[in-house]
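Protein modeling request. Please complete all fields; requests missing the sequence field cannot be processed.
Requester role: graduate student
Desired output: 3D structure, token encoding
Chains: 1
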Amino acid sequence: MALDQESSVWNRFSLALGAALMMAGAVGAAAPLPRIELNAGMHRIDAEVAATDEARMTGLMRRSAMEETRGMVFVYERPGSHCMWMKNTQLPLSVAFLDEAGVILNIEDMEPETEDSHCSARPARYALEMNRGWFKRRGIKPGMRISGLPAPR
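Delivered output (153 residues):
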């Protein structure tokens, strides 16, 4: 094969390999989670929705900051005794466990980078994570209701 032909074949191969690697990276990249607007009384929450096993397992891991009005709602397939932990999570968070009607069962404060379990006091259908102290600063307590929650799948 002539040098020019060999160089041309190599260039086409390099381009094809590069395109394949870029597409593989795009397929493997996590898609952003859907977002929903929730309300705690007059307080608006812009929440990411973690409704799959993978999204619930990952949660807010490896994030270093979150806006004050942002959070993540975990949607479980059925009510149960659900627990959260903070492994690989850099943010101090508070979690509110909610029943099927969105009523807050209990609120727990969680320390970053720990494996302590924080569990629902009774069977919960949802958990809502916010920056630590968000619920307390707004006077939001167990027995109050979060509205706008997504329907479980």
